[in-house]
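Field: sequence (string)
Field: structure_tokens (string)

Example rows 1 and 2, in order.
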Amino acid sequence: MELNLIIDILSELDTFQKAQSGNQTSLEDFRLYLNQKAYESETPRNLTQKFGLEVFDLENEIAKQVIMLGRYSKHLIKKSLENHPDLVNEDFTYLFRLMDYPSLTKMQLIEKNAHEKQTGIEIIKRLVRNGLLVESPDENDKRSTRIAVTEKGKKVFTESMQDITMVSKIMCGKLDQDEKENLLVSLKKLNTFHHTVYTNLRNEDPKKLLKMVENEG
């Protein structure tokens, strides 16, 4: 058993070194190579076949990749905002989005970030408490409260933007320019569809949404 393991390791090491084209490598490089290979070999088909499930393999894999990218981006954003204590978790998306407008109602800002009402309210409260946003009565609708970015908020936006831009660059990994542009086209198309669903059909049964997708296809 141990001999077979050593043979497998040496075989993997040989494959790894051949792929490096003479570049100097380290043990850490080899570990990352093995991790990447293991990740790429994963497939939802293994699990679905085991339990005899009928699934959409391609769509499932796309959904998995999107979900994982979201989690990786949260980790990177959290690290990049460590020098900006007034911005926590997804607070920066509210601040950045509001920079495009003189003011918005609370619900307008929450919907632009595709959050549940309670989650959005908590984020807005935190930003107001930290002095980045300010509330004011809505002159046209007494039931609504408008919010705007303060001078402190604008300063924090400017200071944090460089770090967020760096995260954006990292998130695109090693994609070349054409790959980035093609990915952006697909992502915009997906987000346009889901924005419509979120805005107009968020309470619909998923089965009805699936029929809508299949009819459009």
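Row 2 begins here:
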Amino acid sequence: MELWEALAVLAAGIAAGTINTVVGSGTLITFPVLLAIGLPPITANVSNSLGLVFGNISGAYGYRRELRGQRRRLLRFGTMALIGSLTGAALLILLPPEAFDTIVPVLIGLGVVLVALQPRLARAVRRHREQHGTDTHPDGGPLLLVGLLLTSVYGGYFGAAMGVLYLALMGMLLHDDLQRINAAKNLLAVVVNSVAVLFFLFVADFDWTAVLLIAVGSTLGGLLGATVGRRLPPTVLRIVIIVVGLAAIVRLLLT
């Protein structure tokens, strides 16, 4: 790897770590860069996943204050993330790359729509619960668990804009502050990427230079993203999520 290529991968890692912590879809920055410097797609994908784990961890650490009081919820959600990630990682090895090409833009588009409509949907759900006088599923219920499971399958397979989907699902189905939901999203991303990487270690080849550069960059970016993301008001954060999600769709359709 030449010097300019190394600098490009490091810069992409910083950008991806920042955007993953705030929203998600940092893979759409690092993955094309790894392809551009000549890595095979599968090698680029698994190397990218391992490098971004460190950024996920630093981002979750930066949001540790917002994680307080969410232990029981995160144990349930984390179980779905673990199972889904293992399934997605296995699919990456077993299925042809074309298998998810058509569904990925659809999933991201659905996430963007859900984020955009989240305040209206949340009001509708709240009115329904007030009318019926009960709240049987304060942590989102079975629907959220299934959604998180499917999103984690996608995350284990590729994961671009996985954070957008997590935020959309939890933002709509949980009664909680968006910053706390964002903190939960960051921790789930740690689970998904870590589990997938452990699986890949036994069945795939890594480019360790790329892994190191992305790990350093994404760690710095994760800490930066936690600082930036926490200062954004919910409306601005929602707008950022929508813009990034739309950009992710365009990037996927053009590549």
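free_text_note (row 2): Residues 95 and 157 are 10 Å apart (CA to CA).
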